[in-house]
Specification:
- By secondary structure, the chain is of the alpha/beta class.
- The protein has a domain of 135 residues: Rossmann fold (3-Layer(aba) Sandwich).
- It contains 12 helices and 10 strands.
- Helix 9 links the parallel strand 8 and strand 9.
- Helix 1 crosses helix 2.
- The chain is rod-shaped.
Length: 406
Amino acid sequence: MANPEHVKILKDGVKGWNEWRLNNSSVIPDFNEADFREAYMTAANLRGADLSGADLFKAHINEATLTNANLRGADLREADLGAATLQKADLREAKLDGADISGADLRWAIMTKAHLTGVRADGANLQGADLHGAILKWANLRGADLLSADLGDTDLSMADLRGTHLSDANLSLAKLDGTDMRAVDIRDANLDRAQIQWVTLGNVDLSEVKGLETVVHTGPSTMGIDTIYRSKGKIPENFLRGCGIPDDFIVYMHSLVASPIEFYSCFISYSSKDHELAERLHVDLQSKGVRCWFAPEHMKIGDKIRSRIDESIRLYDKLMIILSHDSLESEWVESEVEAAMEKERRERRAVLFPIRLDDSVMDTDKAWAADIRRQRHIGDFREWKNHDSFKKAFERLLRDLKAGEK
């Protein structure tokens, strides 16, 4: 227990405390395990004090100086720490449920596994704070500065993060359930394997957030169109799908953002016997930011073939056709080519984009294939299994798919 004299002085208020400090400057008080419930310590100088395990339930410590103070395991439930200075304070495993730390300076504070359910931390400075494993359920962090803070493995369920500064913060393995993240500055933050559901993502730039592709979606979330625009569409598609964004919207999304589309989108048409090349092209094109689609992955069972072809040609800018001995015998491929040519005549622009796997198109007497041979440049993927040959042909393909190129 702390010295009863110290407790009395602290409870008498800041004037008596400051006078005692002036007359006892050489005394280092031992406050650990002390009972300071509902004590008034407003603006007190408690720099470096040992308050570990102290009972500070509903204590008034607002505007106090607690730099480098030891508050490990302290009970600060419903305490008033508003505008207090807690730089580098040790708050490991402290109980701050329902406390008010709004406007407090908690830079580089150690708050590992602290209990902060319902804490009021709006406007608090938590730059570089270690909140790893902390419980921040229902916390009000509006406008707080969490630059470079460690929020790994934290529970932020139902927390209000509106306007929070989370640049470079670590949120790996964090739990965000019902968290309000409107207008959050989250540039370069790390969300590796974070668990999210029912999160509100409004007016947030996600383009530089790390680990979005590893986020575990335990339920849908809400994403505003302003987030799509601010992110310039640079959001992993699996993250969008995990949030519950429909595939049809994802398809159109890149045409909605302010920046121009870098590549045309394309639908890959091929014979099933040429699936290996089609799959490789699909994966490599997606990795380069080309939105492409092909039947085995996207065609729904039971779709009417003709209407689905028409929809695909309408939805995508280009029809990429893989010409081979097998595809020239495919009625499916022929139908897609006819639909693309009709669109070209109707819209007076190039739609068909042929590449060849062998020399069959150069020798065939099929009218539709002969027309392609006479009228189009045909990309050469005959040596696609050779790494260097594939790389060269693929680079030409990307160059030709750039939007705006003639």
